[in-house]
Amino acid sequence: MAGRDTFQLRFAAVAASAAVLILLMAGQVAESRMINLCSHTAYPSLCRPLVKRVTNPRRATHRTIQALEAKTKVALAEAARFKNGNQAITTCYGTLSDAIYNLASARKSIRKRDVSAMNMYLTAAVSDYGACVDGFIETGQVNAVQNVAVDLRKISSNCLSLSALIS
């Protein structure tokens, strides 16, 4: 009887160990999938915090669009404070306003599952951020608005890369 109890105890321990191993491997697969989403982007370090624990490219793109909208609104408010008398910031203010429109349109397109329209709007947003950054480069300015615009351009580029993974 003692031998049978020992066998059952060992069997239970092996079964529990196997279950834990399977769960760990499943977690690594999900983590690997998330990393793989960001590995398709030009700036993975900016991608990872935005798509944490998301494995679906559509959701990752949607989440990144939402983050871009929020960050762009903050940048727009900052640009509004300094746009008087500074042509580069005035230009950037206009392009950031355009980017907000394009991001909102991209978000609506993703909900409608219109991937081509979403990509068109995301491409326009990348262009908007690029125009903002170019205005600062041409005038040789470096300031807080320009630094934020550079990050926004990088994140929007990532977003466009994520959207290309949507099937």
From TrEMBL:
Molecular function (Gene Ontology), one example: enzyme inhibitor activity
Any one Pfam family match given in the protein's UniProt record, by short name: PMEI
Entries under Gene3D superfamilies matching the protein: Invertase/pectin methylesterase inhibitor family protein (1.20.140.40)
Domain Pectinesterase inhibitor residues, every copy: 30-162
Alphabetized InterPro entries for the sequence: Invertase/methylesterase_inhib, Pectinesterase_inhib_dom, PME_Inhibitor
Keywords: Signal
Family as reported in the entry's similarity comment: Belongs to the PMEI family.
NCBIfam families with a match to the protein in the record: PME_inhib (TIGR01614)
Protein name, entry field: Pectinesterase inhibitor domain-containing protein
Species in which this protein is naturally found: Capsella rubella
